[in-house]
C-alpha cells in the first residue's frame, strides 16, 4: 500500500470530524437543539431547515464512511503490535469500529426519515428526531470498548521500538473514561444532563475530538515507520518474503489432521 | 506490562522519581480534570439556590459516607504497606493487597445499601439535579473502585516473592497510584456532596 494512501487512512479520523462539523454548522446545529422542545417546535424546525437537515444527513453518511477507514488504519497498527500471537485486541477494536460506523449511518438515515415528510403528524417527526439524537450520542459503548482495546494493546507492546508510545495507552484509558458520560442523557430533558448539556454533549464530543486528532497523528507516524520498513510491498510479496525465511514448507495455518 | 524505555526497576526512592510510569499520569490528571469539572458544576448548583441544595443534601446518609471514607483510607494504607513489602520480597505482601480488595468490596456493599435506601425514599437519578449528580458521579466513582479492585487482584499476583518479572515494582507502583487516585476522588465527592453546606 502506498505511503499517501496510508496517511489518508490515518488522518480519516479528523476527516470524519470535518464532515460532521460542516454538516452541523450548515444546519445551525452547533450547539445542538435540546430535548426540551415540544412536538410542534420540532416539526416547525424541520419545516424551516428541511433541506439543511437532509444535507446534514448526507454529511454524516460521508463521515461514517471515513470513520470506517480510520478504524481499519488503527487496527492495522494494532495487528503489528500483536504479530505472532492471537490478535484479540485488533479484532475487538475493529469490531467496535464497525459498530460505531454502522451507528453513524443509522443516525444519519434517521434524520432523513424525520425530514422526509414535513406534512405528517408532528409527534411522529419528534419521535424520529429523538431517535436520531439518542442514536447519535448514547451508544458510547463501542467508542469506549474500542479505546480500551487500543489502550490494552499499547500497554502490552513489549518491543524495544513500540508502534505507539506508552503514554498513548494511558491516554486511551482516559478517553474511554470520557465516553460513558453520554449515558446521562437518558435521565434529563433540561440542564447539564440533557443531550445538549455539559455531560452528555460537551464532554464526550470534546473527548472524541481530541481522541480523533491524537490517534490520527500517532497512527500516521506509526504507518510512516511501517512504510520505511516495508516500502510499497503488497501483502502477497510480504507473505512470500516471510515464507522464504521460514523453514516449514506448509503455511502455518494448516492444522495437522487428528 | 511495562517497557524498558520507561520503567526501570528501582531499588529505592531517588529524587525525581515518578511513581509508576510517566504515562500513567496522563490518566490520573485527566480523571482529576473531569472530576474537577464536576466539582465546579456542583458548586454552581449550590450557588443557584443554597437552601434547596442543603435540603437535598439532608436526604443523604452522612454516617454511611463517613464509614466508606474510613474504609477507603484504610485500603490505601494496606496498599502502601503491601507495595513496600512486595519490594522487600516479603511473603505477606499479597495478603495486604487482598485486604485492600476486601475493603473495596465493603465500600461497594455500603454503596448498594445507600442506593437502595435512597431509591426507597423516593430519590432517583431522574429526579432533581442534586440527586442526578449524586447518583451519576458516585456511580462513575464506583466503576473506578471496581476497576481498581481488578487491578489490585493482578497486583496481588505480582507481589508474590516468587514472581520474577523485570518491571514488577513499576507495575505495582502504577496500580497503587491508581488506587490512591480512587481514594482521592472519593474524598472530593464526599466533601462536595455530603458535607458542603
UniProtKB/TrEMBL annotation, chain A:
The keyword S-adenosyl-L-methionine is annotated on this UniProt entry: no
Membrane-crossing residue ranges in chain numbering: 7-30, 55-76, 88-113, 133-155, 167-187, 199-218
Keyword Translocase: no
Record's keyword terms, sorted: Membrane, Transmembrane, Transmembrane helix
Entry superkingdom: Bacteria
Name of the molecule in the record: DUF998 domain-containing protein
Organism the protein comes from: Sporichthya brevicatena
Amino acid at each position: 500500500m502506498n505511503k499517501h494512501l496510508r496517511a489518508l487512512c490515518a488522518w480519516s479520523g479528523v476527516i470524519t470530524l470535518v464532515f460532521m462539523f460542516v454538516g452541523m454548522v450548515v444546519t445551525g446545529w452547533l450547539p445542538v437543539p435540546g430535548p426540551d422542545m415540544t412536538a410542534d417546535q420540532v416539526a416547525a424546525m424541520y419545516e424551516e431547515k428541511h433541506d439543511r437537515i437532509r444535507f446534514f444527513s448526507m454529511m454524516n453518511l460521508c463521515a461514517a464512511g471515513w470513520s470506517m477507514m480510520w478504524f481499519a488504519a488503527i487496527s492495522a497498527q494494532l495487528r503489528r503490535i500483536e504479530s505472532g500471537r492471537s490478535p484479540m485486541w485488533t479484532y475487538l477494536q475493529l469490531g467496535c469500529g464497525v459498530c460505531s460506523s454502522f451507528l453513524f449511518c443509522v443516525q444519519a438515515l434517521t434524520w432523513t426519515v424525520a425530514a422526509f415528510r414535513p406534512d405528517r403528524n408532528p409527534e411522529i417527526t419528534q419521535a424520529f428526531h429523538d431517535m436520531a439524537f439518542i442514536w447519535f450520542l448514547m451508544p458510547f459503548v463501542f467508542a469506549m470498548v474500542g479505546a480500551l482495546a487500543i489502550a490494552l494493546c499499547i500497554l502490552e507492546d513489549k518491543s524495544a521500538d513500540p508502534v505507539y508510545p506508552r503514554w498513548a495507552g494511558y491516554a486511551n484509558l482516559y478517553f474511554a473514561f470520557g465516553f460513558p458520560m453520554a449515558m446521562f442523557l437518558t435521565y434529563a430533558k433540561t440542564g447539564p444532563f440533557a443531550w445538549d448539556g455539559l455531560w452528555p454533549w460537551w464532554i464526550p464530543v470534546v473527548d472524541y475530538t481530541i481522541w480523533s486528532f491524537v490517534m490520527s497523528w500517532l497512527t500516521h507516524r506509526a504507518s510512516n515507520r511501517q512504510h520505511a520498513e516495508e516500502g510499497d510491498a503488497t501483502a502477497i510479496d510480504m507473505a512470500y518474503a516471510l515464507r522464504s525465511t521460514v523453514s516449514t514448507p506448509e503455511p502455518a495455518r494448516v492444522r495437522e489432521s487428528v | 506490562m511495562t517497557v524498558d524505555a520507561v520503567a526501570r526497576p528501582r531499588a529505592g526512592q531517588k529524587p525525581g522519581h515518578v511513581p509508576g510510569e510517566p504515562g500513567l499520569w496522563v490518566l490520573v490528571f485527566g480523571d482529576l480534570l473531569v472530576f474537577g469539572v464536576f466539582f465546579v458544576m456542583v458548586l454552581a448548583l449550590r450557588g443557584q439556590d443554597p437552601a434547596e441544595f442543603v435540603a437535598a443534601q439532608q436526604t443523604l446518609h452522612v454516617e454511611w459516607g463517613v464509614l466508606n471514607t474510613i474504609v477507603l483510607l484504610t485500603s490505601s494504607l494496606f496498599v502502601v504497606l503491601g507495595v513496600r513489602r512486595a519490594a522487600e520480597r516479603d511473603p505477606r505482601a499479597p495478603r495486604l493487597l487482598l485486604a485492600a480488595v476486601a475493603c473495596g468490596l465493603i465500600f461497594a456493599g455500603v454503596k448498594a445499601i445507600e442506593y437502595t435506601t435512597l431509591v426507597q425514599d423516593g430519590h432517583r437519578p431522574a429526579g432533581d439535579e442534586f440527586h442526578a449528580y449524586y447518583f451519576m458521579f458516585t456511580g462513575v466513582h464506583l466503576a473506578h473502585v471496581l476497576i481498581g479492585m481488578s487491578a489490585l487482584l493482578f497486583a496481588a499476583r505480582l507481589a508474590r516473592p516468587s514472581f520474577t518479572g523485570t518491571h514488577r515494582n513499576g507495575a505495582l507502583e502504577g496500580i497503587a497510584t491508581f488506587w490512591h487516585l480512587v481514594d482521592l476522588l472519593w474524598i472530593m465527592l464526599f466533601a462536595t456532596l455530603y458535607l458542603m453546606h
